[in-house]
Amino acid sequence: MLALEVDSLTKIYDSSKVLDSVSFKVNEGEIFGLLGPNGAGKTTLMEILSGIRDPTSGAVKIFDMNAIKGNRKEINKLIGFNPQETMLYDDLTGMENLEFIASLYHMDRSTFKSRLEDLMSLIDVKNLLKKRVGKLSGGQKRRISIIASIIHSPKLLILDEPTVGLDPDARRDFWKVIWKLRDRGSTIILSTHYMEEADELCDRVAIMESGRIVAIGKPEDLKRKYGDKSKIFIYTKLKLLDDADLTLRGIGYKTTRMADSLVIEEDSPSELVPYLISEMSRKGVQPERIEIRNPTLEDVFLNLTGKPLVEVI
Amino acid sequence: MNAPIQMAKKDLLSFFRSKSTIFWTLAFPLMMMLLFSSMFGGSSVMFKVALVNEDSGIMSSVFVKALNSTNVTSLVPFSNIKEAKNYVMNGRGSAVLVIPKGFSNNLTSGLAATIYFYSSEDPQVKMAITSMIKGFVDAFLEEYRERMFSIMIQHMPSEVKTEAGIFTKEQIVNFMRMLIKPIDVRAVSLAKSSVTSKTANYRKTSYWKAEGHWVTMMLAYSLIFSGMVSSAAFLSDEKLWGTVKRILVSPVSRWSILIGKLLGSLAVVTISQIILVALTILWLRPQVNWSILSIPIIIAGDLASIGIGFLVAELSPNPKAANEGVITIGVMIQFISGLYFPVSFLPGMLRVIAEAVPFTWAVRALDGLLVFGRGLEAVWTPVLYLIVTAIVLTSLSVALFPKWARIE
User: Fold this and answer.
1) Percent of chain B as helix, strand, coil, to the nearest 5
2) Low-confidence residues of chain A, pLDDT below 70?
3) B234 near B373, Cβ under 8 Å?
């Protein structure tokens, strides 16, 4: 079953097209990533999916219900939204915030308590709940904010840049939470501008630029289709670099000379590396170190848009 | 109905945790009450007068004793005029009063007596103290004449024969009384004549000295200011913190949000009114004609004020502008609605504006009930005006709410 179906969604602000005929589908139980720089239209798209904004045109179906003109109240019971801001009341404690948000979903006290206990096994907020949110750090607020977004067990969870401001360890911990939620049956749509996050976390990714989806698919497929070839970096002693170059050319590989290494582009580098090592050893130019660099979504973005993602951010 | 109540509960909790809110809703009105009660209250000594009493007779000591008992002056004795003048010139006192030698002797011998009075150069102090001393002397002399007259009556024969005829003692007494006091001006308190409660006993005639006004002030302050500030903050803070998005993605209807905000604001105003009135009663112990008729005025006024707060929040481009807007409007209304001083003190154009402001009517109606002990006739017009205002403002804020709740 499809969790989400977006068809020709367009949003125009003051004659500027923020979303330009965006279409995609998300399957139930999938982790779907929206990857793109700031200003690509990810947040606007997510806010339209959440019912906060109205589109200029286009259609959205959430679990086969019309999300634009249909019964939004029913749809809202099924979705959870966590925007970039933490969206919590600074004057209230973490617990008071969560209690209030649970009350918006008509959750009774005992359901709330058991649900919170369950979520606390995924996200550690135990020591944060009695403190006023205004006194917590950005990362601590984000943890409470995530719990607030999933306290009602949404079937579709929409997360806008959920790991912004988190350190790498915290980001990896968060990925584990996302995987666990997926394992429990939630469908997750998240936006990010971290390549490795989209690559590791998402089953499928849509790459957005200037309000359009420029590519969509599994990260591996996208890299294969739009990324560069993998690169093998071969390091030897500098005095042996010429001999190594001759050896590799002698067995039919085109090399590029870098300062202290030779580079070979190859589709299946892991299969080739043992052969290269044995050939070079046989000719007496034992490599000191070999590195394989696989194509990234960054390469995909660069090749599709002509500009590197990091620069655009 | 659970969502609006939870919304109101959350807003209330958040509101009373804010220090600035506590200041504006509770501390500020109490400060204003303290300020105005000390300015207009009747028991404090206002002027220090340096007294040089060169006379040792009985009349001068009676005069000084009477002056001391006014509570308007505090007499500081000096042995010579030079020291007394220095005391005033150094800014420590307001005037010098000299009772020269022979003052008592003259008065008891049927001769005119003189006192000398040197006032501070400050024109306001000079005007006030001169008028006070002259008033006191007039009152003192009236009392003196009355006493002299009663002594004379005791020694008067029952009939006096003159060329014009025979006059009885009663005729002579009436004639002399007329000479002593040709016109008797009697100041009668408006409040005193209409007070219905046995506990209400006003000693003063001035509007400002009517203690019940402090209760009106506290009720009306919350009604005007706290209602506007809380309702505007409850809406605009949701946008400030971004929490409006979380509410909008929940299955709560947009109308539930507005009802929740209305309930929260009403609760804030009611709680602050209860606290402020309770503190006023404990602190100043005012005499008040409690009336159940004040309830519709308070509720209608609360709703009108909350309606203004909602409108300001909905029409403001951002939360900061909403906050500034509502404080500006609230402070202006406080000062022109008769909360701190009568509307009649205002210059012409402002008075016209004040009369158009429904809260002026609310203050007047509350004073009518609580201070002057009036009945239904004092209430129905202001209540009607306030209800109409509340309906118009609330309808407008309801109409604009969907636009506010849409994120653009």
Assistant:
1) 65, 5, 25
2) 309-313
3) no
What residue type is assigned to position B315 of the chain? L
DSSP readout, B131-172? HHHHHHHHHHHHHHHHHHHHHHHHT--SEEEETTEEEEHHHH
For residues B211 and B142, membership in a common domain is answered with no
CATH hierarchy code of domain A2-225: 3.40.50.300
Number of A/B CB contacts below 8 angstroms equals 79
Contact B406 A53 (CB under 8 A): yes
Condensed to tens digits (0 to 9), the pLDDT of residues A103-151 reads 999 999 999 999 999 999 888 888 999 999 999 998 899 889 999 999 9
How many structural domains comprise chain B? 2
CA A163, CA B381: separation in Å to the nearest integer?
60
Domain CATH for B60: 3.40.1710.10
B102 with B144, same domain: the answer is yes
Contact A91 B14 (CB under 8 A): yes
Mean pLDDT of chain A: 90
Q: Which fold has domain A229-294?
A: Alpha-Beta Plaits (3.30.70)
Q: What are the domain boundaries of chain A? A: 2-225, 229-294
Give yes or no: residues B322 and B286 share one domain.
yes
ipTM (interface pTM):
0.80
**Chain mean position to CA B16:** 28
**H or E element that contains A134:** none
Hey, what are A300's tokens? 């995909």
Whether B220 and B353 map to the same domain: the answer is yes
pLDDT at residue B208, rounded to an integer: 45
**Domain enclosing residue B331, as ranges:** 2-40+205-405
Helices B212-221 and B28-40, packing angle to 10 deg: 150
What is the average pLDDT across B273-298? Answer: 89
Q: How far is the C-alpha of A182 from the C-alpha of A29, rounded, in Å?
A: 6
pLDDT digits (tens, 9 = 90+) for B193-207: 443 433 333 333 344
How far apart, in whole angstroms, are the C-alpha atoms of residue A309 and residue A220?
18
Q: Which residues from B are below 8 Å from A73, CB to CB?
A: 251, 253
CB contact under 8 A, A52 and B248: yes
